[in-house]
Design a protein that fits this description.
CATH architecture: 3-Layer(aba) Sandwich
Number of helices: 8
CATH topology: Rossmann fold
CATH class: Alpha Beta
Number of strands: 7
Structural class: alpha/beta
Oligomer: single chain
Order of helices and strands: EHEHEHEHEHEHHHE
Largest sheet: 7 strands, parallel
Radius of gyration: 17 Å
Helix content: 40-55%
Distance between the termini: 13 Å
Amino acid sequence: MQGTYNLGDRVILVTGAGTGIGAAVSRALAAGGATVALLGHRIAELEQVYDAIESAGGPRPAICPLNLESIQWDEYRKLADMLGETFGRLDGLLHNAARLTGFTPLALFDPEEWVRTIQINLNAPFFLTRACLPLLERSADASVLFTSDEMGRGGRAYAGAYGASKFGLEGLSKTLAEETEVNTTIRSNTIDPGPVRTALRERIQFGPELEELPLPEDIVQPYLFLLGPDSRGITGQAFSAQADGPWNR
């Protein structure tokens, strides 16, 4: 179910925007009037989302082809500079990109895979938020939204680096919320999309049950609410997209 939100004149950066939830939310944001900066490492996928937005008559998006696994701090700053020169500010930042290769006990977890997962799932959101804070501070109403997981809100065996990174995101979001609650217009929250039929989900779930899961397009309403002006004043919270929330009231 998708609500109707006025997102006109908002500039929102979305990571992992080429497929799955990131692509669905990006298209929905544009349908609501937002200008979306699409960040991902596969240009062809970003171009498909770009074309879909243009075909639907949405504001022309921007493509930001970056690999969050290998990007360095200087590149984050260059991205922020480019966004500042192009748009002047950011009104929203959705951290949606994630890496999950499966479930493994810690005793067998590959150290290189641990570093790779933490880099994409936790370090990249910090560095990108850090680089974009000056742009968010220029907004009259800015929202930072971290895509989390139930494994980041309670321990789970074999969740490994993925679970640890989502725990870290919950802490990062709350720290940012407390630091920006006074004297800024920035708010920070997390959202657990729940089980959704995406490529990431296919790595951990098989069989007919997968076909029964909602599509990314079915869960965009909470994202639109939390990235838009209707959620002004809500900060430091942990939401679940498939549960009841303020977007239903």
